[in-house]
Write a structure and sequence with these properties.
Helix content: 40-55%
Largest sheet: 5 strands, parallel
CATH topology of the largest domain: Rossmann fold
Number of helices: 15
Oligomer: single chain
Order of helices and strands: HHEHEHEHHEHEHEEEHEHHHHHH
CATH architecture of the largest domain: 3-Layer(aba) Sandwich
Number of domains: 3
CATH superfamily of the largest domain: P-loop containing nucleotide triphosphate hydrolases
Strand order of the largest sheet: 2-5-8-1-9
Structural class: alpha/beta
Shape: elongated
Number of strands: 9
Length: about 300
C-alpha cells in the first residue's frame, strides 16, 4: 500500500528508521527536500556507506515499486530505456508474408507497436504503475560514459523519453529518483544541476552502533561495541579501501555465527577478509597491528565504562 510522503525532516528520519536505516539530520533534510520538490537526489560517497540502501528503504517504507538501473561501462539506450523484440518482429513479418494479404505499411505499423516493445528501467519508471510513481535507482552512474550522462539530461529535466516509432512518453507524476556514484570519475555539472546533492560519509561511532543494533540485533552488546570501535580505528589507518558500513554488518554477522562474545587477536586475523578486500590491507593489519589496535580500543572502552 502506497504511503504519503513525509511532511517534515523529523518524519523523514522516522520513515527511514522504520526501515532500519539510521541517518543523520543532514541526509534526512536533503532527502525531505528532494521528495518535496520532486527533484532527483544525487548521492556520492565511498562504496558500502549505504547510498543504494536509501532507495531500497524508501521503496519498502513508502510502498512504491523499486526500479533499479545498474550502470556499467557501455550502457546504452537499448539496455536503459527500451528496445524492440526483433525475433518476435521477424516472426510476425514471416507470418504476414506467408498469408500474402498484408500490406507493407500495415506490417510496419504492426511490428512497431506496444506488443513488441521491451521496456527497460527508465521507460518503466516514467510510465509508473498502479501503485503510483516508483522509486528509480540509477546506481553507480560513474561507471557509465559521458554520452549516457548526456542522454539522462532529457529524462531528468522533463521526465520524458522519445521513441521515434511511437512518440514521446511523459510521466504523469515524476518518479522518486535516487542517483548514486562512488566517484571513480566526476559527473558532469549539467546533470548535477538537475539534482539535489549529498555526500554520504562513514558514520560516527554512535550512529554506527545504532545501525548495528538495527541491522544485526543478535550481536552481543560488548561485541558490537568492540566491532564498531575496531572498524572506526581501521578507518584512521592508511588503507587502500576502508571498510564501509556493509562490511561492519557482515563482520558482525560472521562473528555472531562463530559464537564470539568478544574480539581477540586470533579471531580478528582469521576474519579480516570479511572487513578488508585487498591482500595488501590485510597483510598490513594482520598480526601485531591488529593486536595493537585491539588493545587500544579495549583500554578506551574500559575507561569509558568506568
Amino acid at each position: 500500500m502506497t504511503k504519503e510522503l513525509p511532511a517534515s525532516i523529523e518524519a523523514t528520519q522516522e520513515l527511514l528508521a522504520s526501515g532500519d536505516y539510521i541517518c543523520d539530520r543532514s541526509l534526512a533534510t536533503v532527502l525531505f527536500l528532494s521528495l518535496k520538490m520532486g527533484r532527483p537526489l544525487f548521492l556520492e560517497g565511498e562504496a558500502g556507506v549505504g547510498k543504494t540502501e536509501i532507495a531500497k528503504v524508501l521503496s519498502q517504507t513508502l510502498g512504491r515499486r523499486l526500479i533499479r538501473l545498474q550502470c556499467y561501462e557501455g550502457l546504452d539506450v537499448a539496455s536503459a530505456v527500451y528496445e524492440w523484440n526483433y525475433s518476435a518482429q521477424m516472426i510476425e513479418i514471416r507470418l504476414a508474408e506467408a498469408e500474402g494479404s498484408a500490406k507493407r505499411d500495415d506490417v510496419a505499423e504492426a511490428v512497431f507497436s506496444e506488443k513488441f516493445l521491451i521496456k527497460r528501467p527508465l521507460l518503466q519508471a516514467i510510465e509508473g504503475g498502479e501503485d503510483g510513481p516508483p522509486v528509480l535507482l540509477i546506481d553507480e552512474l560513474d561507471r557509465t560514459d559521458e554520452a549516457f550522462e548526456a542522454f539522462l539530461l532529457e529524462v531528468l529535466s522533463d521526465y520524458q523519453v522519445t521513441i521515434p516509432e511511437l512518440g514521446t512518453r511523459r510521466a504523469d507524476e515524476p518518479p522518486i529518483v535516487i542517483i548514486t556514484s562512488n566517484r571513480t570519475r566526476e559527473i558532469h555539472d549539467a546533470l548535477k544541476r538537475r539534482c539535489l546533492y549529498h555526500w554520504v560519509d562513514y558514520p560516527n561511532t554512535e550512529r554506527e552502533l545504532a545501525i548495528l543494533a538495527a541491522r544485526a540485533p543478535h550481536a552481543p552488546d560488548r561485541l558490537a561495541a568492540e566491532i564498531v570501535a575496531f572498524v572506526q580505528s581501521l578507518r584512521r589507518e592508511d588503507l587502500f579501501k576502508l571498510p564501509g558500513v556493509a562490511e561492519t554488518l557482515d563482520w558482525a554477522s560472521a562473528l555472531t555465527e562463530l559464537n564470539r562474545i568478544s574480539l581477540d587477536p586470533e579471531t580478528i586475523d582469521d576474519t579480516l577478509g570479511v572487513l578488508l578486500k585487498y591482500q595488501d590491507d590485510i597483510a598490513k593489519i594482520q598480526g601485531s597491528e591488529a593486536k595493537r589496535l585491539l588493545d587500544q580500543i579495549k583500554a578506551e572502552l574500559s575507561v569509558a565504562a568506568q
